[in-house]
Every structure is written in C-alpha cells, then in structure tokens.
Amino acid sequence: MRDPSIVAAFDFDGTISTTDSLRVFVRSTVGTRRFVLGALLASPWLIGCVLRLVDRGTAKAAFLRASIGARSRAQLDIDTRRFLQDRLPGLLRPEMLARVRQHRALGHRIVLVSASPSLYLEPWAATVGFDTVLSTELAFDAQGRFAGVFAKPNCWGPEKLRRLEAWWQDAPPRVLFAYGDSRGDKEMAERADYAWIRGQGELMPLPDAAAPRRTA
C-alpha cells in the first residue's frame, strides 16, 4: 500500500551515477575539442569557484555558455535523447537503482534532487518512476535558445533543502530518507530521518515500519 507520508530523496551525480553526468553530457554533445575550449574560456569562473570567490551556479552557467553556446531547445532535445540512449545507462549504479525500486515497492514517494539539468534528468526519472525532479533548469530566450543562465538557482546544498520544502509545502513527510555523496547534500541529509552519504558506510537497511528517528 502506498504511504505518501514517507519520502526518499536521491541525489544523482555520484550517488545514482558513477560520475558527473553534466560533464559527460556536454562532452558527448559538443565533442572533446569544444568541451576543452569551453572549460578554458570559463576558467576565470571555474577557478573563482574553487577559490570560493564565485558561486557554483555562476561558474556552471559560464561553462555551459562557453561550451554549448546558444544551442536551441529543439537541438538540445535531440542531444538529450541520444545521451539517454547511448551514454547515461552506462553511468548508473545498479545497487542504487535497486534501492529506488525498493522504496517504490514499499509505496514511498521518491524524489530526485540534483544540481544537474532537468533537461535530461526529467525524461530519465520518468522511466524509473520518480514522483518528481527538483534540479537545475536552463533558461531559454524568446527564440528558444539557451540564454546562458539558469531559470532557477543552481540546485545544490541549501537550495536542495529549499526545493524539497517548497515541494511538500505544509505537508512535510512523516519520514524522510536522503541519499547523497558530497557536501552538496549536507543540508538535505541533516533534515532527513535516515541519511546515507557515499563513502560513509554501507547502505542502511530499510526499516520494516519506518518511524522518524528524531525525537521531540
């Protein structure tokens, strides 16, 4: 029986996937030469991000502007279909897909919360059965071309928790599971009743009858 009061929130890159899917998507879309050129052109922002002088969203947008340029939404849709068919399946971790299926079998709502673009995460998540996708969204101009910026803030760190809370509004889950792999998942994991971060132990067993871990 479905229990919508229990939510499982999954990060994507490094958690469900084995690597940064955005880099693979861009490189497979524009080719290695353009990928490298884009990284070089965006290096002031990328280096600034490493030095914590530029936020991650600004650096990521700069890299996408320099690499994919003003690509049309129609062309990106074609690129996405090719990526989903040819590249993404090889990046997925079988044990994490099994965990997603396990939550689904228990009737929990499952949510994908990722800094990678909804461009390819939304169609992929629909095939897996996620209830919703909370992710970074590219902005497009009036001509349907990538505007070089994001429609919403980069979905990383505190923004992940903000997106989750906005999604459930005034009906927070009775129990929240969170799965991540990095600093970008810290706030989401701290909010969760059960949290797993890759590299910090084996996947926790799912309780037979999930109950909140926090106490009043």
Give a description of the structure.
This protein has 216 residues and is an alpha/beta fold. It has a single domain (6-197), classed as HAD superfamily/HAD-like (Rossmann fold). 44% of the residues lie in helices and 17% in strands. It is built from nine helices and seven strands. It has helices at 21-30, 32-41, 43-50, 56-67, 73-86, 94-105, 118-128, 158-168, 186-191, and strands spanning 6-10, 109-117, 132-136, 138-140, 146-150, 175-180, 194-197. It has a five-stranded parallel β-sheet, with helices on both faces. Helix 1 (21-30) packs across helix 2, helix 3 (43-50) packs antiparallel against helix 4 and helix 5 packs across helix 7. The longest helix has 14 residues, at 73-86. The chain starts with 5 loop residues before the first strand and ends in a 19-residue tail after the last strand. The model has no long low-confidence stretch (mean pLDDT 94).
Write a concise keyword list for the protein shown above.
7 strands, 216 residues, HAD_hydro_SerB1, alpha/beta, hydrolase, HAD-like_SerB, L-phosphoserine phosphatase activity, 44% helix, Rossmann fold, two-stranded antiparallel sheet, globular, 9 helices
List the helices and strands and how they pair.
Layout: E1 6-10, H1 21-30, H2 32-41, H3 43-50, H4 56-67, H5 73-86, H6 94-105, E2 109-117, H7 118-128, E3 132-136, E4 138-140, E5 146-150, H8 158-168, E6 175-180, H9 186-191, E7 194-197
Parallel strand pairs: 1-2, 1-6, 2-3, 6-7
Antiparallel strand pairs: 4-5
Helix pairs in contact: 1-2, 2-4, 3-4, 5-7
